[in-house]
Amino acid sequence: MRVEGMIKNTDTMQKNCQEVWSKCMEMIKENVQQETYETWFKPVVAIKLENNELTLQLPSHFYYEILEEKYVHLLSKAIKFYLGPDAKLSYSVKMENHENASNIQIPSTKSEIKTQNPSIQVPTQSSKPNVINPFIIPGLQKLTIQSQLNPNYTFETFIEGDCNRLARSAGIGIAMKPGKNSFNPLFIYGNVALGKTHLAHAIGNEVKKLHPNKVVLYVPCEKFLSQFVDSVKNNQINEFINFYQLIDVLIVDDIQLLMGKEKTQEAFFTIFNHLHQNDKQLILTSDVPPKDMKGIEERLLSRFKWGLSADLQVPDQETRIAILKSKMYHEGVEMPDEIIEYVAHHIQTNVRDLEGSLIGILAQSSFNRKEIDLEIAHKVIKNFVTNNHRELSIESITSTVAEYFKLKPETLKEKSRKREIVQARQIAMYFSKECTKSSLKTIGLYFGGRDHSTVIHAINTVNDLCDTDKEFRRYVEELRKKFKNTPNL
After folding, report:
1. Are 303 and 258 within one domain?
2. DSSP string, 248-312
3. pLDDT < 70: residue spans in the chain
4. Quick check: is 153 in a domain?
């Protein structure tokens, strides 16, 4: 009977404890924003009410520091309202270490509700150094998170073209309504140096301009990985995850580096879910599309596909010229149009090589004290060509094919259905895809504004005729030799 009475008393105390905290939570909820309530108060559990002292269990020491620093006055008012002016508060912080979990009692350190019971004050000392998150002030005295954004990467300096229009338009939409749009996450992918990082920074900078109160953070995936490793070494995984759950717009560059990192993927999965469920924006960049990412858990991979996947392609001739002119404008320099077109014609790999060649030309002109001319451009561009032959372009291929069939190059852009013109056009499309890095869409647009399906049909037709028509195969082989023997720069 005595044991039964003790159990009943414990049950009653637990029930009273939960009832008091439930009422406190109602008051707190009315005085903070919904996202604050969901993040900092909903995970808190009341576990004991004894001698007018309420003990709250917190998920981590990180929660303790935030509640004490930012919300102790609100906690004080709520608890004193229901328990009276002599109410006390203490915390039970759950400290995890992979194998065991232990609770450490920490009284509130604020005078308004500070406990007077010295027996509960058991401060913990650890021989391990604390993990200091690189983005916030040590000790979390003030929650100041630096965005790590490059202010020079903006939408104004990101040149729009067919190669990036979808991704750029989606980025502008995200900046206007971060987290509350159909593009969450925005997954930007493409080969190196095509502008993925620039666009990601541009979105972040625009969000900061339109929504100054939003917390934006750019982090390279490599740094994210190293931070996670440090948090594991120092038994601070919860703090690591909780920090990233504070972000309103999280930008992770080169997310493909998570491939094969199971533990880090698990942490990122938790962060992703929390942010997405709370209408926070995620922006991810990668060298490969989600479907080609090996070594990523299926549940995380499926989330990468929830929003919009937008690829960045190699810029076409017009976009390359626009990029060069924009670069010169911001650098405050001038260059003859023929040189700009010459550079754009021969550098078709990526934006980085394009801008690098421009800087090289300007440097050569300055060092040699010579006006910029084709000779200087010729010497510089040779350093950016990856093989021994001239970088072929759609224009040069079209001219070669037209000359071979004794046609005018512009004829191949017309809508003529004459057999010899259609055949020459299809061969020109075939070699444009084989010998350049141009997209199907760019090739189609060059040949009279045709769509990508027309280019695919042309390529398939050429392949089929090479297998069945001996004379046609001879045409293709002779042209291929011409392209291989194109003179050096």
Report:
1. yes
2. SEEEEE-GGGGTT-HHHHHHHHHHHHHHHHTT-EEEEEESS-GGG-TTS-HHHHHHHTSSEEEEE
3. 1-15, 62, 94-144, 384-391, 485-489
4. no
Q: Tell which residue, 275, 162, 257, 139, has the closest CA to residue 216.
A: 275
Q: Do both 294 and 181 map to the same domain?
A: yes
Structural domain that includes position 344: 317-382
The structural domain count of the chain equals: 4
Amino acid at 361: I
Instruction: Please tell me whether residue 193 adopts helix, strand or coil conformation.
Output: coil
Instruction: Identify whether 139 is part of a domain.
Output: no
Indicate whether 130 belongs to any domain: no
Q: Are residues 368 and 461 in the same domain?
A: no
Q: CB-based burial of residue 29 (10 Å sphere; 0-12 exposed, 13-18 middle, 19+ buried)?
A: middle
Q: Starting from the edge strand earliest in sequence, which strands make up the sheet with 216-220, in order? A: 216-220, 249-253, 281-286, 186-190, 308-312
Q: Do residues 250 and 244 touch, judged by C-beta distance below 8 A?
A: yes
> How many other C-beta atoms are found inside a 10 Å radius of the C-beta of residue 463?
12
- In a domain, residue 67? The reply is yes
Instruction: Specify whether 260 is located in the same domain as 354.
Output: no
Question: What is the edge-to-edge ordering of all strands in the sheet holding 45-50?
Answer: 45-50, 53-58, 88-96, 101-107
CA atoms in the 13 A half-sphere facing the CB of 229: 8
pTM here?
0.53
Residue 463's alpha-carbon distances to 151, 293, 396, 404, 422, in angstroms, are 49, 30, 22, 19, 15
User: CB of 88 within 8 A of CB of 53?
Assistant: yes
Sign of CA dihedral 241, 242, 246, 248: positive
Please provide the average confidence, as pLDDT, over all residues in the chain.
81
- For 71, phi then psi, to 5°, come to -125, 15
Q: CA–CA distance from 459 to each of 185, 416, 430, 468, 480 (Å)?
A: 35, 18, 5, 15, 15
Q: What is the pLDDT of residue 440?
A: 86
If we measure between CA atoms, which residue out of 221, 203, 195 comes closest to residue 304?
221
CA pair distance 41, 67, nearest whole angstrom: 9
Residue matched to tokens 């007077």: 116
